[in-house]
Amino acid sequence: MTDSQFKQDEGSEQVKTKPRNFLMLIVYQVIVRCGWIFKTESVVMPAVMQMLGSPAWMRGCLTTINRFGQSVPPLVISSRIRVARQKKRIILVATSTMGGCFITLGLFWNELAESNPIAMQGIFLVIYTIFFFATGINQLAVGTAQGKLIEAEHRGRLLTGANFVGALSAAALVLLLMPKWLNETTEDFTSIFLFTGSCFVAASLLVLLLDEKVDHYERENNAVRESFKRALKIIKTDARFRRIALVGALFSSSIMLFPHYQPMAQDVLDMDIANIGIWIVVQNIGVAGFSLILGPLADSRGNRFVLRVLLFGVLLTPIVALVLANQESGGRLFWIVFTMIGLTPVTIRILQNYTLELVGPSDQPHYLGTLSLCVAGPAMLSPLFAGSIDLFDSYVPLFVGICVLLLIGWILTFTLTEPRHEWVIERISQESISSSMSK
């Protein structure tokens, strides 16, 4: 069966979007976002590392851990997820592990943050690594479950609902709680970590309410080795995927800047930690606003068009940051940068949704895992790139270099095909053949 035939059947026979599943997936993602907002990579985590006295290259490790955890473990486990009888059980284990990591981090913080910051740096990076291993597996399982339970034409609405409601709910919690935990006199990261972990654990229990049929796929031998061989084969043989993978890899270079926006504001513009709450709120309002507009647009115009718009916005983000950092009044407007960072999670989801449309349900875990691996490539060099800040005592070389990579990625979006056009062509062709045979 061709890819387009999979798509033709997806809405009628293979996939039926049940209201219960649609609602549960939205609520699950809303709760996860309420926890995630308190560990934001562009704001909170860099502040944690800066409080522990970490240099720029060590902050760069956050990006490497992030991307490695969301690429290699998903690829290794993609075959297991594919043959799993129910994907929701993997989501349950992975999300609860994410929660356990932050609860453990909160318990260590009180003991070591002030008395032994060097040891705390090591413990933090180890727990952060385990967290993102679980996160990568979780995201692949959630993406696969979405491909199994939600029709392609409804995934944009799912994106809008989850991101819009989640971002607003999370922002409200930040306005309520963050001023108590982080202000000019208090830096209570313990409460932040414990709250984050509790949200993930609560979200994990919700997936048990998904109405998911049991799959019956055959298990594969040497699954780990086969996963890497399959990923290489996908890249070599599928030109459509190869193009989106390259676009995704260039886009991911923007994530290397996440650990440095907050320190830039603090070092260059002399802004204090009390601004963190506002930056988190505007970033999530940005996610909500962009999702509200671009989710339905992806359903109607296709993911390719929306991806092109998103990457242009991602390209502008470091440019705006550099301009504001060189203005005397830049501190008052630096919140604009964090609003634009809200484009990133939407872009990641659109990349995944585009990939889901390239193949049928049985191949989706392999393609999503391979995409994650390709997207992670540039991030592996993040500590090296971040070291340029220490070397030149300036953020400019790193930010300019990333802008060049993003410009190339945006240009490449004009070479992407639109999978939905291919479905129409295939359907018309099939109808023509059927008509000829009946005559």
Compose a concise summary of this entry:
The chain contains 21 helices and no strands. Helices cover 79% and strands 0% of the residues.
Which spans have pLDDT < 50 for at least 5 consecutive residues?
A: 1-13, 423-435
Overall spatial form = globular
What summary fits the major beta sheet?
none
Q: Bin the helical content.
A: over 70%
How far the N terminus sits from the C terminus, by CA atoms, comes to 24 Å
How do the helices and strands follow one another from N- to C-terminus? HHHHHHHHHHHHHHHHHHHHH
Helix tally equals 21
Plain-language structure description:
With 439 residues, the chain is mostly helical. It contains 21 helices and no strands. It has helices at 3-14, 19-36, 44-51, 56-69, 72-83, 87-112, 117-149, 152-181, 189-206, 223-237, 239-252, 258-268, 276-301, 303-325, 330-333, 335-341, 343-356, 364-376, 382-392, 396-412, 419-438. It is globular. The two termini are 24 Å apart. 52% of the residues are buried.
